[in-house]
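Severity: low
Component: inverse-folding endpoint
Summary: output formatting inconsistent between runs
Steps to reproduce: submit the following structure tokens with default settings.
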């Protein structure tokens, strides 16, 4: 599943990031790394901007097209307890 397709409020773990090495470094600079937990917090009306919580403390605005380069696996309740989210 792509981050841009994740239902609102659903925690997930990043499983892969597609793109060039430079793109992956850019995403890593704001916390998007393989294994990190993310939650889609909101979608801006009339635009392609998504609000994403990275980990437990960082909120990031990202374009939906950019979020489409990030693959995620939704977490179940037990997995959320293990990660502390």
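Observed output (run 2 of 3):
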């Amino acid at each position: 599943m792509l981050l841009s397709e994740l239902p609102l409020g659903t925690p997930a773990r990043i499983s892969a990031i597609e793109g060039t090495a430079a793109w992956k470094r850019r995403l890593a600079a704001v916390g998007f790394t393989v294994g990190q937990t993310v939650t889609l917090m909101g979608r801006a009306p009339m635009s392609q901007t998504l609000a994403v919580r990275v980990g437990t403390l960082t909120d990031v605005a990202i374009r939906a097209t950019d979020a489409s380069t990030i693959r995620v696996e939704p977490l179940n309740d037990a997995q959320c307890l293990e990660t502390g989210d």
